[in-house]
Each structure stands twice: as C-alpha cells, then as structure tokens.
Amino acid sequence: MAYRKEKINDLIRDEVGKILHENLDMDNDAIVTVMRAVVSEDLNHVRIYISVFPSQFSEEVLVQINKQIYFLQQILNKKLKIHPVPKMFFVIDKTEERAAEVEEIIEKVKKE
C-alpha cells in the first residue's frame, strides 16, 4: 500500500502542476510550483504543498487557487484514472523559509 500511495502522490503532484500551469491566471507575476502531494490513508483527500515566488504573493495565490478549486478538481478528476479521485486541499509550503531561518541561526552560532 505504501508503494501505491507514493505513486499516487507523484502522479497527483505532476498532474496538479500541469493543471495550475495551464489554468491558473494570476494578475501578478508569481511563479507557483507544486512541491509535493500527500494523500490521506483512505485516499479520499490530498494535501498539495505549493511554493510561490516571490513569497509575498503566497496568500494572494492561495486565495486565487481556492476560488478556482472546484474547476481545478474537475480537471484532475478527468485526468486521473483512479477512483475515487482524492479531494484537493492546497497549503503553502514553508520548508524553504524554515531552512533559511535554521541556516541563519547556525551562522549566528558559528560567529559567536
């Protein structure tokens, strides 16, 4: 089952990335990247982690995606050959920001 979930995670990550690239119209010049997808144990939900550059547009992009979530879900439903297709939830991936903060702390400690 773990192998199947991993394959579904990869498939959803790739397909949602394509869907966002083709269908997400942003007023700003934000670049949206799908970092990872994590499917629930029962395969009914998927949490999709996105990264936005520049990061100051993160909340704006998330609001825009959530306004179009039903449309995006319909496209995903048509593309995937699995049943049921997990319901999407989008989350801003803060891994890069946290990594930068940790590196900054390490540098401060090294200087002391």
TrEMBL record:
Main location: cytoplasm
Gene Ontology biological process terms, A to Z: maturation of SSU-rRNA
Keywords tagged on the record: Cytoplasm, Ribosome biogenesis
GO molecular function, one term: ribosomal small subunit binding
GO terms under cellular component: cytosol
InterPro entries: KH_dom-like_a/b, RbfA, RbfA_dom_sf
A Pfam family hit: RBFA
Family matches, as Gene3D superfamilies: 3.30.300.20
Subcellular location(s) of the protein: Cytoplasm
Function: One of several proteins that assist in the late maturation steps of the functional core of the 30S ribosomal subunit. Associates with free 30S ribosomal subunits (but not with 30S subunits that are part of 70S ribosomes or polysomes). Required for efficient processing of 16S rRNA. May interact with the 5'-terminal helix region of 16S rRNA.
Protein family according to the UniProt entry: Belongs to the RbfA family.
Subunit comment: Monomer. Binds 30S ribosomal subunits, but not 50S ribosomal subunits or 70S ribosomes.
Protein name: Ribosome-binding factor A
Organism: Candidatus Yanofskybacteria bacterium RIFCSPLOWO2_02_FULL_43_10b
Taxonomic placement: Bacteria, Candidatus Yanofskyibacteriota
